[in-house]
Design a protein that fits this description.
It is a single chain. With 335 residues, the chain is of the alpha+beta class. It has 3 domains: 142 residues, Nucleotidyltransferase, domain 5, CATH 3.30.420.40; 96 residues, ATPase, nucleotide binding domain (Nucleotidyltransferase, domain 5); 67 residues, ATPase, substrate binding domain, subdomain 4 (Actin, Chain A, domain 4, Alpha-Beta Complex), CATH 3.90.640. It is built from 10 helices and 18 strands. It has a 5-stranded mixed β-sheet, with helices on both faces. A 5-stranded mixed β-sheet has the order 13-12-11-17-18, with helices on both faces. A hairpin with a 3-residue loop joins strand 1 and strand 2. Helix 4 crosses helix 10, helix 5 crosses helix 6 and helix 7 crosses helix 9. The chain is flat.
Amino acid sequence: MRFRSGVAIDLGTVNTLVSVAGRGLVIDEPSAIALDRATGRVAAVGQAADALAGKEPQDVEVLHPLRNGVIADLDAASAMLQGFVRRAKLRRGLLRTAAVVCVPGGATWVERRSLAAALSVIRPRCTLQLVDEPIAAAAGAGIDLAQGAGAFIVDVGGGTTESAVVAGGQIVRARSLRVGGNAMDEAIVSAVKAELGLMLGRNAARSLKTTLGLAGNSTGPMETVGVDAARRTPRVERVPGWLVAQALEHIVTAIVDCVQEMLSDIPPNLAEDVVRGKIRLAGGGALMPGLADRIEAATGIPVVVVDDPLRCVARGAAEILEHGDGLQQRPFAQR
């Protein structure tokens, strides 16, 4: 289905990206909202709200309303989306306003309805199209969804990992894990505290992940700043690569197992398409050193990281909004 106007939203656990038909990407900010504890009024959304996390005033509460790729706090998510859509400055009086919104392929009907409810608060009369993230990722990777050839997509987001074979604008096979970049960050925080007695913030853990990743001893230690767990004072520490790789091992193993399970379930008539087309790696996790090599070594199939993997799903959603792009999913009916 093609829409002449409207908005495309990649509502992620970590970041929300909003594109407007004819204008392109207009918002790329953290999925965060700050609320006044006494009144419940919105104090900030996006980057401004996320910047307050961990150092907010006593009368302000910072929330991240998504968990594992789906809405965990409906009221907070609705208010956050309302702030983003207002900032997108959609023109009023459009004959047909649509919202193309990405959702994890493994999301339940209840979780999809919760997302639809959050959008209906903002624009109750718009046509809502929920698009499974692997399909949006395929479109964002430049795959022609109207063609029947199969494409293997692995999207490692903040809260979920989606592994899917897409063909003819539909998901043929899929696996979904409720783990992603956030779980990796938490694993690094726990490992550094246990091994070095240093408490890290989320941003410090994320930097270790994206810089050291699975490199192990092949990469030198990285300097970071945290709080000494015993003395409760700031401390500079050099974190070794092996510690980060060790912390990530169980999550990476789960992701690789998920991909291998997908391979064992691929229909024979799509096997050649997958092997010749390679495995396309998208999402923020694609930027972690060593992940693509690990998947390739386990599967024997070349793995390529898509261009600008952080924005791949959002790019595909915008493409579907403006051009339809062979999508076979129907608009979501809110019942």
